[in-house]
Amino acid sequence: MGDYILVIDEGTTSTRAIVFDRDLNEVALAQEEVPLTYPNDGWVEQDGEEIWEKTLGVCRSAIAEAGGVERIAGIGITNQRETTLVWDRATGKPVAPAIIWQDRRTAETCDRLRKQGHEAAVHEETGLLIDPYFSGTKIGWILDNVDGARARAEAGELAFGTIESFLIWKLTGGASHVTDVTNASRTLLYRLGLGGDAGWSDSMCSLLGVPKSLLPEIRQNADDFGTSDAALLGKA
């Protein structure tokens, strides 16, 4: 087993890869900008494939600087939280640009839900307020505005994830469709609770029109999230 940890920091404006040794000393770092686009007033997007390609590129650069993939014992990911991607399970390609956490295109949907009196129940279920900031209404927007997306989602052909979930899918070759509790709790779809009571919320999925088949498996932070092929990260 290697003696270094690779950390992926996929942020709103750039993606970084940092290699640390067991004493948490920085061994290598690589960083690339990922530009934002603003196609309409209040809209903020990124190209999901560009996020992946640049993340993969900085990982390969940092690993090479650190002495090769054989030195890497594991990978950790931190990401831009509520940013939303929906992709094709067969190809791994996003069906639409990533909708960034800053995006406000679902403000009218959120206003309607509040006027219908859902705020208190949503807060009780999720601990969150109804707001475009969170992923749930963003997913609904993609399903309702991308041709055929809702039917494909209901048929089990599409997957949703926040950015770490998308990166794990890519790093594992589609073997792991997973997220952790902290990211799940920022989607507006996660039911608060203790033990077996917590998890994806049937009532929130129904309210926001999100098929549960889209959603990743929720794991604890320190669980096994899958294995990446060494060749993907630069092994000769």
Note down, in words, how this protein is organized.
By secondary structure, this protein is an alpha+beta fold. It has one domain: 2-Layer Sandwich (Nucleotidyltransferase, domain 5), CATH 3.30.420. It is built from eight helices and twelve strands. A four-stranded mixed sheet has the order 3-2-1-5, covered by helices on one side. Strand 1 and strand 2 form a beta hairpin. The chain is globular, with a radius of gyration of 18 Å.
CATH hierarchy class name: Alpha Beta
Q: How are the strands ordered across the major sheet? A: 3-2-1-5
Count of all domains: 1
Order of helices and strands: EEEEHEEEHHHHEHEHEEHE
Give the averaged pLDDT, no decimals: 94
How far the N terminus sits from the C terminus, by CA atoms, comes to: 18 Å
The outline comes out as globular
Radius of gyration: 18 Å
Output the CATH topology. Nucleotidyltransferase, domain 5
**Beta-strand residue percentage:** 15-25%
Low-confidence stretches: none
Give me the count of strands. 12
Query: Helicity level, as a percent range?
Result: 25-40%
Largest pleated sheet: 4 strands, mixed
Structure class: alpha+beta
CATH architecture: 2-Layer Sandwich
The fourth-level CATH homologous superfamily is: ATPase, nucleotide binding domain
Per DSSP, the total helix count is 8
Provide key terms for this protein:
236 residues; alpha+beta; Nucleotidyltransferase, domain 5; 8 helices
